[in-house]
Each structure stands twice: as structure tokens, then as C-alpha cells.
Design brief:
mainly alpha; Tetracycline Repressor, domain 2; Four Helix Bundle (Hemerythrin (Met), subunit A); 2 domains
């Protein structure tokens, strides 16, 4: 049976709820939601539990909506990359128009609900994050420049600011530092993946830094970014949000991240199968979860009225 026949058959049966759930990029969404909750918990003041739940749901749905639109636009790229070839938009289980409609509807609904039930600042930040991810990163930058993930990574840095704004109704220096933390974390995180997935990005025509500048230049940038993360991770307690738990934990986690980058710098990826890069990619996810977990706990759960 040909691929065309298979795709037509899957479309004819209709998409399952699991296919639409997969459109939301649940693994990415988990990290987005967690950092939003951390920003909410670290924020001064209190928020009604029902409003907090509404804010978290809006961030969840908004992030998923952006992921669905991303899958709609990048289905040609996804088709030639092993890690994305099974996505429902590639396999024909969800038609492109359906994925786009699904994503746009959820995005608009999540932003409107956030603005009406939580506050216009939080709603505006959620709208900005979605617009940035779709138009700046996905449509404009990703296929045009090796700095795609540097600039476009700002979209994923908004959630803790949104969580903070949900409680306080404004944005101050501290949530901007949380934004900067994720902004600086994103390039080494994705470049670690790009190092051992380089042939796939090259085949797909995506100008990720390892493809355009080579592995050595990429590894140097990864090392510099992990070093730059260290002072940012300990800055919020100096401004009165959080304490020694965040400082100590941030330093330990950050130094381990630098060590990972140093091992990648020293590694001959062709000989080792990019073992150090794979380890760094896995650790980078743990790093962000752990650091924002410390921020949530050490900042005091006062934002949720606990």
C-alpha cells in the first residue's frame, strides 16, 4: 500500500482525541506550565485559587495552541526529521486546515479568557508569547537564520512573567530576570539537541547553528551561555525574592550545567556518538525544572495564598 493510500485511509477514519492532544506538544507544554506556576508562587501578594486555576489552564491551552500552529506550518520539515515524522500533521491523521483552525481557536480563547478572568496584563503577555512563537520564531526566523533559537527562544521565556502578572497585575525587575533566565537557557538546550540531530536539520534545510557555523563554534556558544546563566539565576534573591536556597541551588545547578557544556566542548562527537551532548540535553531539562522548583519554594508560596 502506498504512503498516499495510507494517509488517505487515516484521514478518512478521522483523528482521535490523542491526535489533537499530540498537536498541543504536551512534553513542551509541561515545562511551560511549570515555570508559569513557579512565577505565580514566587510573586508577592495573593490570588484566589479559582483565578489561579484559570490562569494555569489558560497558559496550558495557549502554549498548546502555539504548538498546534507550529505543527501546521512545519509539517514539511517534520516529515524529514526522525523525531517529528510521526506527528499527526505529517502522518495525515489531522488535516493541515484542521490543525490551524484548532490552534487559532484555542489561542484566541485562552488569551480572551486570561484577560477577562485573570487580568489584562497577563492576557497581553500570553498573546505576545503566542504571537512571538508563531510569527517571529516559526514563520520568520527558523528557516532563515542560525540565530533562530536565540531570538525565537524569547517566546518560551514568557510563562513565569505571565504567572507573576496573574498575581500582581504588573511586571517588575524580578519576573524580567526569570524571563532572562529561560532566554539564556534556551540556546544551549536546543543546540545540544542540534549537535546530535545535525544531519536531520541539514536535510530539512533548517539553519541551526551546528549546520551553519559548525560544531566547534556551537560548542563555544553553549559554554558561554551556561556561564552567563550563573549570575542571572542568583539575582532574584538579591532583589528580595527568594533566599539562600535559590542562591545555593542555583549555583550548584548552574555549575553542573557549565560542566556539561565543558564536556561537550572537549568531546569528539563523531567518535562518541555525541554522548556528552545527549547528556547535556537531558540535564538542561532537569536544570530548568529544578531551578524553578527552587524559585517556587524559596520565593514562598504566598502568591497562591498558601
Amino acid at each position: 500500500m502506498s504512503d498516499v493510500t495510507m494517509d488517505s485511509s487515516m484521514t478518512a477514519r478521522g483523528a482521535s482525541w490523542r491526535d489533537y492532544y499530540e498537536l498541543l506538544k504536551p512534553r513542551v507544554m509541561t515545562l511551560v506550565v511549570f515555570t508559569a506556576i513557579a512565577g505565580m508562587m514566587a510573586a508577592p501578594g495573593a490570588i484566589h485559587p479559582a483565578v489561579a486555576v484559570a490562569a494555569i489552564l489558560c497558559v496550558t491551552i495557549g502554549a498548546g495552541a502555539a504548538g498546534a500552529i507550529n505543527m501546521w506550518f512545519e509539517r514539511d520539515i517534520d516529515a524529514v526529521m526522525a523525531r517529528t515524522a510521526a506527528r499527526p500533521t505529517v502522518q495525515g491523521r489531522v488535516e493541515p486546515a484542521e490543525a490551524l483552525t484548532f490552534g487559532v481557536f484555542l489561542s484566541v480563547a485562552s488569551v480572551m479568557t486570561m484577560a477577562l478572568l485573570v487580568g489584562w496584563v497577563a492576557g497581553a503577555l500570553l498573546a505576545l508569547a503566542n504571537l512571538f512563537y508563531v510569527f517571529v520564531y516559526t514563520i520568520w526566523l527558523k528557516r532563515r537564520t542560525p540565530q533562530n533559537i536565540v531570538i525565537g527562544g524569547a517566546a518560551g521565556a514568557f510563562p513565569p512573567m505571565i504567572g507573576w502578572a496573574a498575581v500582581t497585575g504588573d511586571v517588575t525587575v524580578v519576573p524580567i530576570l526569570y524571563f532572562l533566565l529561560i532566554f539564556l537557557w534556551t540556546p544551549p538546550h536546543f543546540w545540544a539537541l542540534a549537535l546530535y540531530r545535525r544531519p536531520e536539520y541539514d536535510k530539512a534545510g533548517v539553519p541551526m547553528l551546528p549546520v551553519v557555523a559548525g560544531e566547534r563554534a556551537t560548542k563555544l556558544q553553549m559554554l558561554l551561555y551556561t556561564v552567563a546563566l550563573l549570575p542571572v539565576s542568583v539575582a532574584p534573591p538579591l532583589l528580595g525574592v527568594g533566599g539562600w536556597l535559590t542562591v545555593g541551588g542555583g549555583l550548584v545547578l548552574g555549575l553542573l550545567f557549565v560542566i556539561c557544556a565543558w564536556r561537550v566542548w572537549q568531546e569528539d562527537g563523531a567518535a562518541t556518538g555525541h554522548k556528552a551532548a545527549k547528556l547535556m540535553f537531558g540535564y538542561s531539562i532537569f536544570y530548568l525544572f529544578a531551578l524553578f522548583g527552587l524559585i517556587a519554594v524559596d520565593g514562598g508560596a504566598t502568591g497562591l495564598g498558601l
